[in-house]
Amino acid sequence: MSDEVRKMMAVAALFMPLLFSCSGGSSSKNNLLGAIPDQYAQFVEEKAEIKKEAENIKTAEDKKALIEKSEKMTAKWKEKMEESAKALSGKPVEIAECNFNITEPMSLEFDDFFSKSDLKPKFNIKGTAIAKADTQTELNYVLKSIPVYLVGYDAEGKEVFKTKAGYVDVEDVNGKAFIKANTPVKFDPVRFGESDIEGSKTAKTYKLEVKE
Question: pTM for this structure?
């Protein structure tokens, strides 16, 4: 091996850790919400720190300074999460085999934040899904429609994430909700919050499912 080749290999080895450190971390890849779970977790942590500081406020000046700090922190994370949320628009959401056929690719489209202070991102679901076959559920027939959830499972098949994605119309068959084949799912906006952080990081596959 020539000295020149050895030098090139040494340089490559030197920069290899930098390439991985700039990738954004494995937790922000190959998941439904990209970088948002990590960003939201940091936002929640910083918000908790400010809340703790508020316990020691003694003067009006201290209160004003802390309010300004909180507003700047919220504005910072709002900008970061909005940028990450917009980057998801149009990105296909892969749905595993389930009781619904995806007839037009599903994707998320950032809309706004449900809460300006809690910064819970809101997404519209684009695409279409229809019931694959006639399905007799075990859910009691109460209303003319039942909720459909976007459910995430980890590598071992354990449910780790669930968010209401919309609803599907049903009929009453012996007191139970019955879904006719080809009935479309009517999608609603979905939100992301603190309780979704860990599950959205570990979910590997997603399905559309009816649940109570």
Answer: 0.79
Tell me the mean pLDDT in the region 67-78.
95
Closest to 96 (Cα-Cα) out of 159, 180, 189, 183 = 159
Give helix 60-88 / helix 36-54 axis angle, nearest 10°: 170
Q: Which residue, 160, 136, 135, is CA-closest to 149?
A: 160
Measured CA distances, 75 to 37, 70, 79 (Å): 17, 9, 6
Q: What are phi and psi of 198, to 5 degrees?
A: -65, -45
Distance CA 98, CA 102 (A): 10
pLDDT in tens, 103-118: 999 999 999 998 878 8
Q: Do the Cβ atoms of 206 and 150 come closer than 8 Å?
A: yes
- CB–CB of 153/160 below 8 Å? yes
Question: For the chain, what is the largest distance between any 2 Cα atoms, rounded to a whole number of angstroms?
Answer: 81
Looking from the CA of 14 toward its CB, the CA atoms found within 13 Å total: 6
Residue 64 half-sphere exposure, CB side, CA atoms within 13 Å? 3
